[in-house]
Amino acid sequence: MTPQAPTPAYRRLSVEERRGQLLAAALSLFAHRAPEDVSLDDVAEAAGVSRPLVYRYFPGGKQQLYEAALGSAAEQLRQCFDEPRQGPLLPRLARALDRYLTFVVEHDAGFSALLQGGSVVETSRTTAIVDGVRRDAARHIYSHLGVTEPGPRLRMTVRIWITAVEAASLIWLDEDKQPPAGELRDWLVEQFTAVLAVTAGRDPETAAVVGSLPGDD
Prior knowledge:
71% helix; 0% strand
């Protein structure tokens, strides 16, 4: 008789491992489809588990699962701007944008649904998660600029630029990711220096910040 290969031993996942598995499956689906087009059955199938098991970990159903997946994606976005405060500012900003645009590409339709709103699962909590990412991005940028308590004009300048980055990313997806990511990144960096220069002409605080930055030649 031909000996049979041993059956791999079944490993029971811990609560955190199972929850992570379900979140990963949900994130993969939400990355490429609008939230309202993803069902719990889809998540269960993608994770290779039963629908009741999904409910066991997310008794609030699809809404709870979506918010948890959104929170996980938000954490990844926060890390995009977590760049060491070493060396010239513009290369630091370029590296952060490289990570940001990579996230945009990997999450495509989900990124569009997230920022454009209008989803049937959008709530004040999901909006707060997105706004939290924007605030964290702004805090990272203030830190890169060496500012702990920015004034109103500098705060407005940074927030306007973050909004421009989001808008450009959405248009970029609609334009089949053209121009290439590297060109978009460089253009956004140039936009940042341009809006800082405009604000510096009207705001002494911003002018002092720009004048104190290390050279970016």
